[in-house]
Amino acid sequence: MDYSSTFVSSNYASTPMRAQQAEIILARFMPPSPSQSDIPIHLSTYTPGEDFGRLAKLAKEFGLARIRNQKKQIRKGIPKLAITNGQQQQQQSSHDRQPALRYIFSGYSIWLELEQQEIDNNGVGDLEFAVKEAADEFHLGGAIPAPHVTALYGITTIATDEEAINIFRNDVVKAITNRAEKQRKESTGNAGKLWPDLAATGIIVGAEYDGVNGGEMDMAWTEISFATSPEHESLISELYDIFYRRDTTRLAAANASLTDEKKEEYPPRTQPWVPHLSICYDNPEGFGTILTRQSFQDFLKNKCPTLAAAAESSDSTVKLTRAVSGVSLWNTAGTMADWKCLDRFEFDCVTP
Question: In the chain, which ranges are continuous DSSP H helix?
Fold first, then answer.
């Protein structure tokens, strides 16, 4: 999930009612004192600003910063859950579905598809099962359409699906295959692999409000985090250049529709890639009540044994490793339900 500030904010996110609702939601979990020492360790989660604005940095990384009026800073500190008889209070009955994710996404995206294990008779692998089961387990309003690790998100330098498909087939696929062929000849790095494997380093349960403590979106989520490497960074930079720096004629045409204030050159990448496999998304009020670190750990342990190691507390930096099995092109404009896959390049179709 690599999101940027170029998302088109929903009406909900831009009205005074949104701020009032956020105040009410957060007040339920705010302690009278700003001290965080009493927060149970199993409820520790990610909150905006703890990693110096990860999402905001990624937005700027892809040259997608927008001009936005700053909103009132609502969250004063890390929310503290009310615990009654050792049980976490829920907003709704466990049998009620949460509302569908309200957030409005934008642009085109390049996704990495990971190798799946324990494929059943219906062809459903462990990762596909995880995203669908998480939506049911947490009674969410929708499941992520397909498990993925985002390589690039919110590409807005493309005008049509047809143009996106053409660039994907002719430039993206060529960049990946040419790199692998070069490494094969030189017998360097992951020689022969079209994309280096990804090593999981842990999990994150996160939440943000757009404009609150540096947040750039209205969303709660769970993820399995992965490590990057020089090989990964080289590939991501090459993909970035394809869409943002290589074709100056196409980029100039795309910029022609922008206001003078928003026109800008797309600089080279400077921040590292932050690869992660999102398991589920929810509206931000689900943070701390529906989605917690403990509930996500329990879900992985009880429902997704092949992924459970990612949440284990151990001295090992690498929890598990997955190969990349392909790359796909998605139109990610609109709500999550609007996303559609435009094309896919499966690595097993390439002869070593």
Answer: 16-27, 54-61, 126-137, 161-167, 173-186, 230-244, 248-255, 293-303
Dist CA 39 CA 49 (whole Å): 18
| Neighbour-count burial of 228, counting CB atoms closer than 10 A to its CB (0-12 exposed, 13-18 middle, 19+ buried) | middle
Taking only the tens place, the pLDDT of each residue in 248-268 is 555 555 555 544 444 456 788
Distance separating alpha carbons of residues 151 and 98, to the nearest angstrom: 29
Q: Which amino acid, residue 312?
A: E
- The tokens for 133 are 């089961």
| Cβ atoms 148, 337 nearer than 8 A | no
Contact call for residues 321 and 313 (beta carbons, < 8 A): no
Asked if 63 contacts 11 with a C-beta cutoff of 8 angstroms, the reply is no
User: How many Cα atoms within 13 Å fall on the side-chain side of residue 133?
Assistant: 16
- Per-residue model confidence as pLDDT tens digits over 136-151: 999 999 999 999 999 9
pTM of the model as a whole: 0.71
- Rounded to whole angstroms, the Cα distance separating 210 from 313 reads 31
Walk across the sheet containing 219-226 and list its strands: 320-322, 198-208, 219-226, 276-282, 149-155, 108-114, 324-331, 340-346
Angle at alpha carbon of residue 123, lines to 117 and 129, rounded to 5°: 60
Q: Which of 22, 37, 27, 29 is nearest to 81 (CA)?
A: 29
Least Cα distance to 145 among 341, 296, 283, 347 occurs for: 341
Look at residues 291, 29, 322, 8 and name the one whose alpha carbon lies nearest to residue 149: 322
Q: What percent of the chain has pLDDT over 70?
A: 64
Please state whether 251 falls in left (phi above 0), alpha (psi between -120 and 50) or beta: alpha
**How many CB atoms lie under 10 A from the CB of residue 24?**
10
For 112-131, letters b (16+ CB in 10 Å) and e give bbbbbeeeeeeeebbbbbbb
Single-letter residue type at 128: E
Radius of gyration of the chain from Cα atoms? 21
